[in-house]
Amino acid sequence: MPLLIGAGVVGFAVIFWLRSQGKEVSIEGSWPWLAAAVAAPLLAGWLLARRRFIRRDQALVRLEAQLLLHNALTVAAAGRAPWPPAPRVAVKDGWQWRWTRVGGPFALTVACLAAAIWIPVLPEAAALPVVEPQAWEQMDEWLDKLNEEKVITPEEKEEQAAKIAALREQPKEKWFSHDSLQAGDTLKEQLQREIQKLGKNLSDAERSLNGLQNYAEQLSQEAKDHLLKEFDEAMKGMKGSPLQVDPKLLKELAEMDVKSLKGLSKEQLDQLRESLKKKAGACEGMCENPGFLGDSEGEDDALADMLKRFGDGEAPGQGGIGRGPGTAPLTLSDEENRFDTDKKEAVSNSDLSRAQLGSAFGIQDGKHEVDKTSAAPRAAGAVENAGQGGAQVWRESLTPEEKAVLKRVFQ
Hints:
mainly alpha; 411 residues
């Protein structure tokens, strides 16, 4: 019975812990475990009580003593006499059921196991949500957004996600350690830097196509060459980027004749530029938006500057039709700006609380004070004053210990 009660308590703890960890425990799946939990204590109890069992011959002797049979059972068992008839009245033979003592442990064990299954429990996974470092979540959002806009390939997303998963494979108690946080921040900075470069290359390519498509007549050859060079650099940057760009987009850009823009209709060019703008816009929040000409977003610094320098008649250029007035206004002027830099003013500060060693408190004109008293020549080593009274006697300087010794000797 004590073993059965112990099994019930242990079973309650095990089932309750499993449920707290989020594992489902049902009655149907628990029957084998319940049967084993009951059978094991019963078997152990039988083995422990077996040492106190009585033998058959001992049982016959006890029955003979209880029923006053005078060895009739022992003689009958030896085959020397017939078995006596069974008594017709109730006899106290030592066998009695104590249901409260036997049923109590069984009821307690069943109650413990039932309570472990039916008591409501909130799993630890739900009670304490797992919080990851912010850098991991932000990188996941970036990769999802880039994959959704088809800026990078699914394979590239999986490769980058594998790096983040390697950090998640650490034990949870080490997620916020110094080494883990430093590794996550480094990976985030590297990914952000590559996304910024990719977004810049996409926006540069779109801006170059926009200028060559819509403003070619207003641009000089130098401006066109600049846009072509910018487009080539953007293409090299996208091809050499550690982030694998959408191959379909790279193929369309590589097969296009940028100088003449042949092979694509205006609708196709507009669609290609719109795709570049959309993909570059996916970097918003991860890198600064350089803006696109005519979209009223960001700043069109590069192309607007170029159009102003090379296409606007008010800006300086190389002269000629459509190339500006030619000469630029002079930047030097005959008028002198007076800033009074040659004016001298005295500087003074009466607060000496912050003065330091070597600081000059003031400067004053003056002369040295010279002692003009005449001095006659004198012999070297001569005594100017022989002294008077006790000063004429030589005295020895003694330490306190020496003085104490002399005082004891000459007292």
